[in-house]
Amino acid sequence: FPERSNLAGVQHVLLVLSGKGGVGKSTISTELALALWHSGKRVGILDVDLCGPSIPRMLRVQDRAVHQCDSGWVPVLVGQDKGVSLMSIGFLLERPDDAVVWRGPKKNALIKQFVTDVAWGDLDFLIVDTPPGTSDEHISTVEALRPHRLLGAVLVTTPQ
Question: What pLDDT, in 10s, does the model give residues 77-108?
Answer without folding.
Answer: 997 778 899 999 888 777 656 656 666 677 77
